[in-house]
Sequence to fold (335 residues):
Amino acid sequence: MYKQTVLPRWMGFNLMGVYMKGHSPGHYNEEDFQMMSDLGFNFVRLPLSYRFWIKDEDPFRIDEDLLAPIDQAVLWGEKYGIHVNIGFHRGPGYCIHDLPGNKEPFSLWTDDEALNCYILHWVTFAKRYKGSSADKVSFNMLNESARVSPEAHARVMRAATKAIHEISPERICLVDGLGGGNYPMAELGDLAKENVAQSCRGYIPSGISHYRAPWVDKEGKFPYPVWPNGLQGDEVWSLERLDNHYKAWAAMAEAFHMGVHCGEGGSNHNCPHEVGLRWLDDLLCILKSYNIGYAQWEFTGNFGVIDSDRKDVDYVDYRGHKLDKKMLDVLKKYL
Fold:
């Protein structure tokens, strides 16, 4: 069986503190790190928007004082034994949620100005966290690249990881697969020797993970989800097909001796809970069989184990929060 052998099999969650300007508080809570550690998890991914730390909406003007919440998250990670993965959910020139009225001023894939700006931001982070060891802090280059050719994507990722490694050669840089993180990129396999790894996603089939999610299924057309044999569009995803999907990631990992991690996954709170749990159990079983770690989207919130506002869950009290014990048990089963 193929195996990913380079990265630790990190298990944990995403935290939303600096995720989306106008919708996120701009800070993190120590309690989240405490709870994750106490529950047995060792990884947190910070999906960030660069708009939190620029001046006057100018993407080239970085105010490093505004990076203090990320500094604090790194310190809490060290305190509680949690690896912190710093990632750009929105980077200069690209966001998968680039909606009308919130669009980027240029394109990372086609504009050299955008590429220079993107590298400027990553160089700032590389210098700032140069003193943090690679086993405590890693970088996730850009969330869910899509609507871009493999050649244009590779050009950007090669330039940016090279700039980071000129400052911190040991820093692990995770590059999301194409197609929104779903397709491994063998064309970047040679970067494995440069501490570049790849990140996949755990949202297949979307008829389960995003059932009635308003940003995907806003018209409510997804059929009632089932598992196994759930739907993604018109395609049926069996357990065997799901296994083959991640086998391709593990095969790439073994062929190039490249690290792979699943940076996001889960089902939103509108998915029937028992269906979502059956699917999650199979997803995590498959990932573990290939030694690929996993980070749930989110810790608290609609996809999470804490305060998820699901209507079909008997929550238990945990430090004054509503804990989804059944989901937690599935996650802990694969630690």
User: Anything to note?
Assistant: The CA atoms of residues 266 and 288 lie 15 Å apart. The longest strand covers residues 83-90. The two ends are 20 Å apart (CA to CA).
